[in-house]
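Action item from last meeting closed. Structure (333 res):
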């Protein structure tokens, strides 16, 4: 990172002119242990799963939509797939818990979770197996030559599971961490908040650790994403957060292994109300503030062209010495 920062300072442009993009490139230098690197091979890992809490009427649509959209990933017809074509990102959707069989790569430990309002979302065995699946996927991506991992998800009801986890992990009020998801009326939002409030009280998570919280009120997509953040760190791969859902998984990973946070990059600040609080807790500065809330990894994909442009400047811009002009002087006052 020190070498990367020195290189940025030597380039013939205003100091810190590319802002957080420079910081992100510098962090990747540290992650990879290299002053010069490329990001030619990028992959978006989309974890797809159903959530039993949909039975409580916390979303506009029923759980059948999860399988439909998951299958759309197989044919390249989702928002994330189309954006990835432009950003030159490969897409791998993984069915880690959709109720129905799908046409994507399947790694099911269960067919959806239990209804967290009335029972644990999953067993300890299923939860651990799914976290380990995420770790293995990250390792396999490293072995296949990918240089950066992007995280995404698909699953009706997963803003509810993410909000419940965020409340438990941060000891935060339900109202602060819970938004409208894919779209709820005012009454629908109040109902969603009440479901989460009752679920947290039912499971008694005041003193619970991250794995117990994941087991009781999480989702299979969240468990797999937690593993990807851990596995990426273990493999020295940068892992890009998408929005609120993957940020909650990143927070879970960091509670398990705090150093994993050094390998996580924030793409954007989503419109979900809990996002800013989670970003603060992680100590992450996002690049994009575009009001996005689509999910699927679209925010992470949207970051890639900007990151590639910054990397082009970092690698190829002439230095002050090279064009024989006096470098800018840095002032701190």
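Sequence:
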């Amino acid at each position: 990172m020190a070498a990367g920062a020195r290189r940025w300072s030597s380039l013939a442009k205003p100091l810190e002119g590319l802002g957080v993009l420079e910081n992100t490139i510098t962090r990747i230098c540290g992650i990879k242990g290299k002053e010069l690197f490329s990001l030619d091979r990028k992959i978006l890992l989309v974890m797809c799963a159903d959530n039993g809490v949909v039975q409580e009427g916390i979303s506009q649509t029923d759980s059948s939509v999860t399988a439909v959209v998951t299958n759309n990933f197989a044919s390249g017809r989702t928002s994330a797939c189309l954006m990835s074509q432009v950003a030159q990102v490969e897409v791998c959707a993984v069915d880690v818990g959709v109720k129905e069989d799908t046409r994507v790569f399947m790694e099911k430990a269960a067919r959806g979770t239990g209804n967290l309002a009335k029972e644990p979302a999953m067993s300890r065995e299923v939860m651990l197996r799914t976290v380990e699946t995420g770790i293995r996927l990250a390792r396999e991506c490293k072995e296949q030559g990918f240089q950066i991992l992007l995280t995404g998800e698909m699953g009706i009801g997963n803003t509810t599971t993410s909000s419940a986890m965020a409340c438990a992990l941060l000891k935060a009020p339900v109202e602060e961490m819970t938004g409208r998801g894919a779209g709820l009326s005012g009454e629908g939002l109040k109902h969603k908040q009440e479901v989460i409030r009752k679920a947290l009280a039912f499971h008694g998570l005041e003193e619970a650790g991250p794995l117990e919280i994941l087991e009781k009120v999480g989702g299979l997509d969240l468990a797999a994403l937690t593993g990807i953040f851990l596995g990426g760190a273990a493999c020295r791969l940068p892992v890009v957060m998408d929005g609120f859902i993957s940020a909650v998984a990143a927070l879970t990973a960091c509670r398990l292994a705090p150093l994993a946070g050094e390998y996580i990059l924030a793409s954007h600040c989503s419109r979900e109300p809990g996002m800013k609080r989670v970003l603060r807790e992680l100590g992450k500065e996002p690049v994009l503030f575009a009001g996005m809330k689509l999910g699927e990894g679209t925010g992470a994909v949207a970051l890639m062209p900007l990151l590639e442009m910054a990397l082009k400047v970092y690698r190829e811009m002439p230095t002050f010495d090279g064009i024989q002009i006096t470098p800018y002087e840095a002032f701190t006052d």
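Note appended to the action item: The chain is about 50% helix and 10% strand.
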